[in-house]
Amino acid sequence: MCPIDSRTIPPVPLHVRRDGPLPIARQIADQLVALIRAGTLNSGDRLPPVRVLAGFLRVNRNTVAKVYAALEREGWIESTPGRGTFVTAAPPDEAAGLAPYADRLLAEAEARGLGVEEVRGLITARATERRDGAALPRVGFVECNPSDLAYFTRQLSARLRLPLVPVLLADVPRAAESLDIVATTLFHVEEVRARLPSHDVIGLMAAPDFRTLDEVAHLPPESRIALVCATQEGVQSKERSIRAVGIRRARVQAATLQRPERLRAALRRADVVLASPKVLERLAGQIPPQARVIPFASVLGEGAVSLLEQRIRTWRPRHGRRARSLTR
Fold first, then answer.
1. Whole-structure pTM over 0.70, yes or no?
2. What are the pLDDT digits (tens) for 276-285?
3. Which domains are assigned to the chain?
4. What sign has the CA pseudo-torsion 119, 122, 124, 130?
5. Is 137 exposed, middle or buried (0-12, 13-18, 19+ CB in 10 A)?
């Protein structure tokens, strides 16, 4: 089998619900098409191999193989033996899809005796209001440690194109009055909801970057892996992902920044060091020169981010309170 250059595999945030109303294959296919339509996956991007994607999602390989085959028949992807599976379809012209809404708006305006120029002025005024930050909520992101907090806040802020308020889990009660909507990872969503019962709290799935999982899956069997995280919760999450692609627990020595002695011992024995980009910054000078370093980045799931975007768009101040502009 030809080795796969994992650097060409973009982040593919997918998840499945075994108790959901749709079959698992349909869930995977719909999410992949949505990612292509949204431009998260572009023409020429390589998808994870069937084995890696099935291992991560913890589903049967045949399920993923059938999804890839169906999407290939529909023209979304193309599989080439020895090279991999690639996105072939460019996202459609999304603006064209808004034409029916524009037609209905113009028809409604005409029924009310309004002309095209008045409709154009209304749209321009609303767009300016949104651009200037009017009626935008104050959005916070909550995490339990500074490393993950900085990493996810920066990632989410870039995707929303809005500045976010970073809040440590321990500081949530003090920050409550300054926030309207709160996002956090699924690890902490119930705890944050319990502390902020009157707030809209959105849980986001933080999924490992498939490029990382593919690179880990192709490590030599004898490799000794040091998995380093800021907290024990991070260790538990990443260990599950590693096991999903066939890495045995015995090969992985987990450590956290909170226990320096265990961390130093794990690094001394390591052939490979796995850690998030922010944690790797903290490990500067501690990693043995012979060890291979693999950044273990995570990406936030598209579905929950889209839900957060919708909540931001539809939010309205309570009791006449004016929202603060997030762009000033």
1. no
2. 887 888 898 8
3. 6-87 (1.10.10.10), 98-131 (no CATH), 139-205+301-320 (3.40.50), 209-298 (3.40.50.980)
4. negative
5. buried
